[in-house]
Amino acid sequence: MTDLPDLSQTTGEPLTESQICGILAQIDLDILNLLRDGKLAALKYSAPGAGPQTDRAANLQALLNARESYQKLLHNLPLWRTSAADLSHT
Predict the structure, then answer these.
(1) Which is higher by pLDDT, 54 or 25?
(2) Sign of the alpha-carbon dihedral angle for 5, 27, 62, 66
(3) How far is it, in rounded angstroms, from Cα 2 to Cα 48?
(4) Domain spans of the chain, in order of start
(5) How far is 79 from 9, CA to CA, in rounded Å?
(6) CA distance linking residue 27 with residue 68, whole number of Å
(7) CA separation, residue 38 to residues 42, 55, 56, 59, 74 (Å)
(8) Which residue has the higher pLDDT, 9 or 51?
(9) Using an 8 Å Cβ cutoff, are 66 and 30 in contact?
(10) What superkingdom does the record give (predicted)?
(11) Contact by Cβ (8 Å): 31, 64
(12) pTM
C-alpha cells in the first residue's frame, strides 16, 4: 500500500478515552522494551527500506514525546458528558 500524500481523503472520529489509554499502554511497553537488557545503546540501526538510520535513544525520545502528546489529549477530554431528555410528551 502506498503512503498517503496528505490527510484530505481521511475521515474519523476523535479518539475515545479507552483508545487513548490503549495507545499510552503500548507506548509504555515500547519504552520498557527499549530500556531492558541494554537495548538503549547508541548503536545505529535501520530496517531495510524503512528510511534513514536511527538509534534507540532517538526512538526513546520520540516515544516520550508521543506519550506526552497522548497524555495531554487524555487530560483534555471532557470530564462530564451531559444529555437532555424531552419530557414534554409525557
Answers:
(1) 25
(2) positive
(3) 16
(4) 17-46+53-75
(5) 31
(6) 10
(7) 10, 13, 10, 14, 31
(8) 9
(9) no
(10) Bacteria
(11) yes
(12) 0.66
Write the CA distances from 67 to 11, 18, 50, 82, 87, integer angstroms: 23, 15, 22, 29, 44
Report the pLDDT averaged over residues 11-37. 89
> How is 27-53 classified by DSSP, letter by letter?
HHHHHHHHHGGGTT---EE--TTS-S-
Residue type, 19: Q
- CA-based nearest residue to 78, from 19, 24, 17: 17
User: Torsions phi, psi of 73, nearest 5?
Assistant: -60, -45
- Residue 25 sits at φ, ψ, to 5 deg, of -65, -40
3-state secondary structure of 72: helix
* Cα(12)–Cα(9) distance, integer angstroms: 10
For 66-90, write each residue's pLDDT tens digit: 999 999 999 998 877 677 777 887 6
